[in-house]
Amino acid sequence: MASIFTKIVNGDIPSYKIAEDENYYAFLDINPLAKGHTLVIPKKEVDYIFDIGEELYKGLFAFARKVAPAIEKVIPCKRIGLTVIGLEVPHAHIHLIPINSIYDMDFKQPKLKLEDTEFKAIAESIRKAYAG
Ligand code: 5GP
Q1: Which domain holds residue 28?
Q2: Ligand 1 atom nearest to 15, measured from its CA
Q3: What is the pTM for the complete model shown?
């Protein structure tokens, strides 16, 4: 069965898209630790990030490297933190999280509850920053 993220890539489940190319897709995390919390995935469904083939793996990080500055332009923060967990969704993904302190990367922190309109506004701003 297709993963939730494959359904998102295929448009079967909606997402707040940030960027995409032939092999990768970036979209807002639905339970964000911070505004602009973004997931970057390969379109190809592979569960564990270290099982991804070398070229696709390198390309995933190269794609995240292009997305991070766009988030940083829109969301005031000290840095964009990057982490990989993957215990919940079996489709490899990188978390990009705007942070001001190490605690902002703590997944035990309560998640933000954002309205649909706010998700849309954030995604649109980051999309525009990404497009340059
Ligand atoms: P992990 O697998 O890295 O432990 O966590 C999966 C992440 O995916 C979580 O931060 C969770 O909020 C996010 N997530 C789970 N399901 C969905 C979904 O359907 N849409 C979006 N945009 N994010 C999701």
Answers
A1: 4-129
A2: 22
A3: 0.98
Nearest residue to 47 (alpha-carbon basis) of 15, 89, 96? 89
Rg (C-alpha) for the chain, rounded Å, is 14
Number of structural domains found in the chain: 1
Which residue of 13, 88, 96, 112 sits with most ligand 1 atoms within 8 Å of its CB, as the best mutation to test the pocket?
88
Query: For 78-109, what is each residue's pLDDT tens digit?
Result: 999 999 999 999 999 999 999 999 999 999 99
Closest CA to 111 of 25, 5, 34: 34
pLDDT single digits (tens) 23-42: 999 999 999 999 999 999 99
As a whole number of angstroms, the distance between CA 20 and CA 42 comes to 10
